[in-house]
Automatic annotation (TrEMBL):
<dbReference type="InterPro" id="IPR035992">
    <property type="entry name" value="Ricin_B-like_lectins"/>
</dbReference>
<protein>
    <submittedName>
        <fullName>Macrofage activating glyco protein</fullName>
    </submittedName>
</protein>
<dbReference type="Pfam" id="PF00652">
    <property type="entry name" value="Ricin_B_lectin"/>
</dbReference>
<dbReference type="InterPro" id="IPR000772">
    <property type="entry name" value="Ricin_B_lectin"/>
</dbReference>
<feature type="domain" description="Ricin B lectin">
    <location>
        <begin position="25"/>
        <end position="154"/>
    </location>
</feature>
<keyword id="KW-0732">Signal</keyword>
<feature type="signal peptide">
    <location>
        <begin position="1"/>
        <end position="18"/>
    </location>
</feature>
Amino acid sequence: MFSFSFVSLALCAVLASAQTPPEISPVLLEPGNNAGKCLTAASNSDGAAVTIQTCTGASSQQWSFSGGSVKLFGNSKCLDVTNGSTKDGTKLQIWTCSTNGNPNQQFWYTGDKRLSWTNHGKCVDLTDGNQSNGNRIQVWSCGNGNANQVWNTGYLASALPSKSENGQTGTNACGTSSSQSSQCQTAWINGVDDFCLWAPPSVGTIGDTEREEVAWCTRSGRGTRVIPDGTLKGVHFVKTPDYVQVTGVGDFTKINVPRGDAGGELDPHGADGNGNPIGGLVFGNSFGNQLQYHEWTSFISDTEFCFRACVGPNAARNCQHIYDEMGCFWNMPANYDAGTFESCQGDDDLPMGVYGTSTWFQGVNPTPPAHPAAKSSNCARIPTVSAKPAQKKRDAFTTFYAPGPTPTA
Ligand SMILES: *[C@@H]1O[C@H](CO)[C@@H](O)[C@H](O)[C@H]1NC(C)=O
Ligand SMILES: *[C@@H]1O[C@H](CO)[C@@H](O)[C@H](O)[C@H]1NC(C)=O
């Protein structure tokens, strides 16, 4: 596993210059606060406005990073700062890509997921943070932690590429069947009886296989492997304002984790930005229909697991994954009891590693205690979690609010 220290994080930020995102183009560009909205060109005409709109996967939303520019429509048109004006609030437009490096069309993708106008100290900015369709996008002075300047690169769940990252061993276009030899690396997290775990494709420690883990799910029908009945001994799902989380215990030797393996941590970024597993994507219905989670963190050992997927302005903080040696109980304090299968609403846990105004870094003595688990309520229990088919229509985000009896299909 990768041990970041404060120093290596700072170094990453410097080395992140002149980068393109790790995800293979074309990608959707989704504002950090709403994975259902996409950076969109009004048309392919020179001078067309750039706005956000509901993601549809149309060609006007399929951006490619190429030659220092952000392109679409067969790489013929470029994201362009209107008239090259450096005034904060200048709107972005679409223009024919220049052949001689027009500076108005030069952008780079930063390590903290911003689209920076190269050499200008300006960033692509969701005007006023307004997520309504039609809101025109501007450039604004880059500000650390400005949530309006986060642009996640992603894909529609219904149109996943075969591979989302170079070096990926499996696939994201997983189909609608299931197979215990599947190499699907698209996971879902929807509820106590509808979630996936990352585990090895064949027996091997998490440390040795972290880059290759595949999705093992409670539901068949999404092209993944299915967690065999009897594997899960206790499952606790919680939805908070800013994340969904599933924690529990089981016998994960049934999904290729060797007995005695203390396990390890999986996340979308890894040490090199490519994630563990490489190309692993996570989707869910809890905050909107089939939305991609761009920030998530998960641990699994031979006997316990935890998986959190985050949204909102604090997604990266709530799904912090630099504490990769600290395990589930420290990173995601929650109920892990065997014999209980429940779905609750809850408050956010305090962000891992953050104690008031100070942040602890792994390896620094003394190691602070875990935060207490946040309050939860409205828990609904089910008898057990066993494999069953994904129900396309019913896997709506309403199911959480009315867990009711175990669905019978
Ligand atoms: C850009 O420049 C052109 C030509 O000078 C001018 O007509 C247009 O109003 C300018 N656009 C903006 C948004 O300033
Ligand atoms: C948000 O953007 C939409 C689309 O441009 C606009 O109609 C609306 O007035 C904006 N809302 C606010 C509060 O500015």
